[in-house]
Amino acid sequence: MIVILNNKCNLNKDEFKAYLKDISEIKTKIDLVLCPNFLNISEFKSDKIILGSQNVSAQNSGAFTGEISANILKSYNVKYCLVGHSERRKYQQENYHEINQKIKKLLESNITPILCIGETKEERDSKKYKEVIKEQLLSAIKDLSLENQKKIIIAYEPVWSIGTGLIPTNNQIEEIFSYIKSYIMTNKILYGGSVNETNVDTLKKINLIDGYLLGTLSLQEK
Q1: String of b and e for 16-38 (b: at least 16 CB within 10 Å)?
Q2: Which end of the chain lies in a sparser environment, N or C, as judged by fewer CB atoms within 10 Å?
Q3: What Å distances lie between residue 53 and 35, 62, 164, 217, CA to CA?
Q4: Which residues are marked as active site?
Q5: What is the CA radius of gyration of the chain?
Q6: At 221, is the pLDDT very low, low, confident or very high (cuts 50, 70, 90)?
């Protein structure tokens, strides 16, 4: 079981230090991966939590102002990195090719990509959600060897569920997870989207879930 804590654009330097101290005291046998904002990566110090990143550049180096490459992340001992989060697809217009390139750069630096995929409410309502999931998945693993494909963690986050309090039924989640498994059988698949203290017990009943990607809930230290 693996849980990814996505801090998003939150926590200044002092707030992060206090937050990190609190979550480092959590006693758990699961793997906890913390994805702070880029500036707080340099403030990360913990032997109990694994360091992740929220994003990576599709470039190795060069005149790309504001970008952070995979080899820079590696120098800070980053082990995991989110790729293709719906917020970046929407606000930064990340396309399939760019996401594919980012995954390749991460794998070259031995950083595990966490590929975020999921449909909008319109795509769900129009019954096109499987087509969307398939396109997001296959475009992301394009030109990758089978060995490298297996290294990717998939995070299913229905866009209509993120931050809304709405959550798919267990049957709907199982349907998507089984569909993803039909293309990549052995990869770990996480669920994300409005996970909270109330519904997590229901989600635990789904045997296919290998862990969770937490956004808002990640900011709660205990």
Answers
A1: beebbeebeeeeeeeebbbbbbe
A2: C
A3: 5, 20, 24, 17
A4: 85, 157
A5: 17
A6: low
